[in-house]
Amino acid sequence: MKAVRVLSPTGMLGAGFAQSTVDRGLDLGADVISVDAGSTDSGPHYLGSGTPKTTAAAVARDLRVLLRAAAKAGIPLVVGSCGTSGTDSGVDWVAGMVEDILCEEGLDLSVATIRSEQRADFLKARLRAGAVHPLAPARELDEATVDSCTHVVGMMGHEPIEEALRAGADVVLAGRATDTAVAAAFPLMKGMPAGPTWHAAKIVECGGQCTTNPRTGGVLATIDENGFTIEPLDPDAACTPISVAAHMLYETVNPFRMREPAGELDVEHATYTALDDRRVRVEGSLFHLADQHTVKLEGARVTGYETMSFTAIRDEHILANIEAWTELFDKIFTERVAQTLGLDGSEYTYDLRRYGYDAVLGDLEPASRPPREIGVMLLVRAATQELATAAAKVANPLMLHLPTPDMDYLPSLAFATSPAETERGPVYEFVLNHVVDTRTPTEMFRIDLRKARTHD
Amino acid sequence: MTDQSTPTFGDLALEVRSKNAGPFWVTMELFMRDEAGYALAAAPENVNEDVIAALYAVRAEDVQIFRIPALNVVKISFPRPVSQAGLHDRDVHAGQHHVPLAALRPVSPEPV
């Protein structure tokens, strides 16, 4: 092949896109459809609990459009980071939907799943072998931290996806993968050069984000031996040299260099040239193969259970004296929790947030305008749900009636809901920010191919 | 000297934004309107590691600054001071933390 055309319909499977986006991509000769289905951006809950952020109906709708398109054009479909976090449960969730849709639509496609969840004993053995290293700002990993995680995934590069495609998969459903590997695997397999391929993969990973109108659907990247050309699939949207170059800034620490399992993308000397008013040509991207192939780990663990309560203040006097009110809340709340539940500060923690005043930025808040109203959110975390809720209920009379110290009557504040308390269940934190030195690029991933009947 | 009549970087920018860069880093960008605005934002006396450290209560040695004249962009990255979605994280996507940066005023209103 002299060039490979990658169709990226959206930045997130389940976010939705127009049928016309995909139709236009096929008309332009797409050779592969790639789509990302995951992210850590919404927090550790999804990895920690192994549940998706997206709703099944939305994911199934997008999958149906893409599976029909892949079957019609006879091109592969690659889905990365299935089920938001790429846990095995996320891969199974998407694979179940794919199976149902293929059956309903009468489509005969070979489907490969690639599992990326990691066992604690494997990780501890690699740790003991000195093959696990921290990434800034993390410290050295220890075995107790590995054991504390509810789920650990490894972020695959292009290699396991390429292996599944070579084995004959029409549809690849990958667990956790780098956003770029999903789009890079097929062009690399077809012999496209690494620099332009990885750069194009980074540019298309968020769908229309690299265009002048990010809400209008996907993009098509045409990769060849010298570079790549990028164009939006909505005829009214445009890619400009600025919109494409600026996408390297999005959610990256360093806009010029990006580490992949196999090496590092280097776009320091890339050039961005307008071919016309909506297509951009990119050349000069480099990829430096690393001496050691590495796989990045993501892990999450339970930090406790939370209960939330929310009330609101409109009383002008309390608004004008909100610091004194907060101080009084802290004093009485901690005293009452100790007195009634017998808990000291080591057995529960809480965060009192004053929305409308300084909740979002806290001490960083530069504004000094008086607020019209303040929403007061109390979040309590403890080792069990019962304790968290008990403490939040101790706060209930305060969130209803607490005055400022100089008031000689009890106000009644505005609870948002009844009951005031909402149990949030277990809460999680990300604890791994480490890489594993691999012995082969695929050893940490498990490929399972179900051949289509016609391929037998 | 800075005073309230000096425009902020937010006034001089097309867009100032912030976002998570993975679970452990925050990144933010000043998309300046023109070369004059870029010159102010890129001037080390206006935006440097110590200024960012003071603005966001982080360590100066952890701050990375990228000055990109081709895009009129100054990009700033540093480790997330608060664990993502932890009890004390009030901005899970770090999408509102550009505001202190946007409110910053250049020390000198003239490009240097």
TrEMBL record, chain A:
Residues 59-400 form the Acyclic terpene utilisation N-terminal domain. InterPro entries: AtuA_N. It comes from the Bacteria. This is Acyclic terpene utilisation N-terminal domain-containing protein.
TrEMBL record, chain B:
InterPro entries: DUF4387 (IPR025496). This is DUF4387 domain-containing protein. Residues 10-104 form the DUF4387 domain. It comes from Lentzea albida. It comes from the Bacteria. Pfam families: DUF4387 (PF14330).
